[in-house]
Design brief:
The chain has 246 residues and is an alpha/beta fold. 41% of the residues lie in helices and 22% in strands. It binds S-adenosylmethionine. S-adenosylmethionine (SAM) binds next to loops.
Length: 246
């Protein structure tokens, strides 16, 4: 299992820490052919890599356009990924109880009104001993980004603001602190096995630098690994990745 796109791109530096954390779960020769559900898997960037590594992958996503792109991507990559239309509130109907060894929930919890209900649904879908891979936006990084853009009042307002931010189309977006997401995951009955900060530097480095400097993407990915579990750098990360068992 490589979980590699086969290319070295700026995106690889941003996702390197998550892919490495997933290797521990999806790269175990003693556990081939796992049932993996990617909730909110979108166009399937990760799902096709997991399928190419020999696992049975189902993507559940509310967007028909995303599912169509997923189908194209899977065909191009010559892997099978099942796409089902649904969302976190219908996850149990979409895939059934105790049907997954691994649930990927990356970049989705931010858009859900009831975090606890969403995590409970994931818990029901997982088999006993199954693993949740959860990736969420971290609030402190947004505070830093606003301050660096000169939006000091907005940064100040965001410091302790746990209410979701309104977005177009009546949607909203919630960011989490490490304490908030850890508490929610634990309250839903999971035991957290690892926590990583993701994109500590990757969002700050100009893409042109990575394109022009040979080896820069690899070096940046290694730097991201090196700081991903250091308590003094995790608060700077754009995202938080947690793995947890049920
Ligand atoms: C930011 S994208 C993340 C895509 C992918 N998981 C990734 O990490 O690249 C968010 C995805 O979540 C889907 N989504 C939005 N609301 C959702 C919900 N309530 N339940 C499940 N998926 C949702 C969107 O259609 C979109 O494909």
């Amino acid at each position: 299992m490589t979980l590699s796109s086969g290319q070295s791109t700026p995106h690889d530096a941003r996702s390197a820490v998550v892919r490495e954390a997933l290797r521990a779960v999806l790269d175990d020769p003693a556990r081939p052919g796992l049932d993996v559900v990617d909730i909110g898997g979108g166009t399937g960037g990760l799902a096709v890599l997991v399928a190419a590594a020999g696992h049975r992958v189902t993507v559940v996503d509310p967007s028909p356009d995303a599912l169509a792109s997923l189908a194209r991507r899977a065909r191009e990559r010559e892997v099978v990924v099942e796409g089902r239309q649904g969302d976190l509130s219908t996850l149990l109907d979409a895939v059934g109880p105790a049907s997954a060894d691994v649930v990927l929930c990356h970049g989705v919890l931010e858009m859900v009104a009831d975090t606890g209900a969403a995590l409970a649904a994931i818990g029901e879908v997982l088999r006993p001993g199954g693993t949740l891979s959860l990736l969420v936006a971290q609030r402190s990084a947004a505070v830093i980004a606003r301050a660096m853009a000169g939006h000091f009042d907005q940064a100040r307002g965001l410091l302790d603001d746990t209410t979701p931010e309104p977005r177009s189309g009546g949607r909203s977006f919630r960011r989490f602190s490490l304490t908030e997401i850890s508490t929610a995951v634990t309250a839903a009955g999971f035991e957290i096995s690892a926590t990583h900060g993701v994109r500590v530097f990757a969002d700050l480095v100009p893409g042109s630098l990575l394109d022009l400097e040979p080896g820069a993407t690899t070096a940046l990915a290694e730097l991201e690994h090196a700081v991903s579990q250091r308590v003094d750098y995790v608060p700077l990360a754009g995202q938080l990745h947690l793995t947890a068992q049920r």
